[in-house]
Amino acid sequence: MYKVILLNDDYTTFDFVVNVLTGIFGKSVPEAVTITADVHQKGSGICGVFTRDIAETKVDMVTQSSKKAGFPLRCTMEKA
Predict the structure, then answer these.
(1) What whole-number distance in Å separates Cα of residue 41 and Cα of residue 39?
(2) pTM of the entire structure?
(3) From CA 37, how far away is CA 4, in angstroms rounded?
(4) All domains in the chain, ordered by first residue
C-alpha cells in the first residue's frame, strides 16, 4: 500500500487543492479543507492510502490537472 501526498508550494490556490481532493480523491469538502490546511501549514498532506497502481494513477491525475490549470502543485507517493 502507498500513501499519496500533496506538497505545499507558494502558488497553487487553496480552492484548487480542495477541488483536487474532492474531484480526484472523492473527499468531502470538510475533509478536503482539513487536508489542504495541513498542506499549507505542515508542508504536506496525505490524500489517502491505495494500492501501487491506484496511487500511481492518482499522482498522475493530480500532475496533469495541475499542469492544465497552470499550477505547480506536486504530488508524490511513498510506501505506507
Answers:
(1) 6
(2) 0.94
(3) 16
(4) 2-79 (3.30.1390.10)
Q: Residues 17-34, buried b or exposed e (16+ Cβ, 10 A)? A: bbbbbeebbebeeeebbe
> Distance from CA of residue 1 to its chain's centroid?
17
| pLDDT tens digits for range 19-77 | 999 999 999 999 999 999 999 999 999 999 999 999 999 999 999 999 999 999 999 99
Query: What's the confidence (pLDDT) of residue 17?
Result: 97
Q: How many other C-beta atoms can be found within 10 angstroms of the C-beta atom of residue 10? A: 5
Strands (E), 2-73: 2-7, 44-50
